[in-house]
Amino acid sequence: MGMVWIRVIGAWVVFLAAVGVARAERVLIAAAADLKWAMDEVIASHRQAHPADAIAVTYGSSGKFLTQVRQGAPFDLYFSADTAYPEALVREGLVPGPVQRYARGRLVLWSQSVPAAALNWQTLASPAVRRVAIANPVHAPYGQRAREALMAAGVWAQVEPKLVLGENIAQAAQFVQTGNAEAGLVALSLVSGPRRPQQGHVVLVPQALHSPLDQGFVLTRKGAANPAARRFAEYVQSPAARAILASYGFELP
User: Fold this and answer.
1) Which residues pair with 186 in a beta bridge?
2) Which of 38, 62, 80, 122 has its CA 20 to 30 A from that of 89?
3) CA–CA separation, 230 vs 76, rounded Å?
4) Mean pLDDT within 215-236
């Protein structure tokens, strides 16, 4: 019986160790919606080097993720479209920090129907365009910058009644893609790139018209204790990952 119990106990030790490794290899990421296409490719590239790391990502509004992290959501990494959000978490002592800046996003005017030559502030303000899509400025950095740009261009009063608000920048882009809005102010990374060929007409919004879209990520306390999460955080700053981000129009720090 003694040998049987030794075998049973040994089997349980091996099983529990395996469970612990499996858990350590799981990574849960909250990522700003403008990263959708680029992050999917970064994860696929990372998987080639670390096939055992099971990475799951949820895309959405940076501001809403900020609230969820504050409320204890079990994310390992938080990628925000605005460094101010993760920096607030560091100041509040909710994440260990530091915040790593990984890119600067670009805001664009995008339309499926309005030609590029006519895609400007005057056209957005004119009766020719009935609906303009932006992300909700209350919690989405791209929506905040879109509002700043419209105000700086002097057309906010004319465009505000036409606005269709997306919960995040990906939904705002979807409104334009499906024709529910004739034009929108969206992320360049969502309308161009190697896995997302440019559709419709795109005009870059001058960065002087809005605050920078400096984007940063941070490991949570849970992520800092997860070797797989730390590996992915390092990979995002590697030349291979940076090249992927650049291919989707992100400017690199």
Assistant:
1) 108
2) 38
3) 9
4) 97
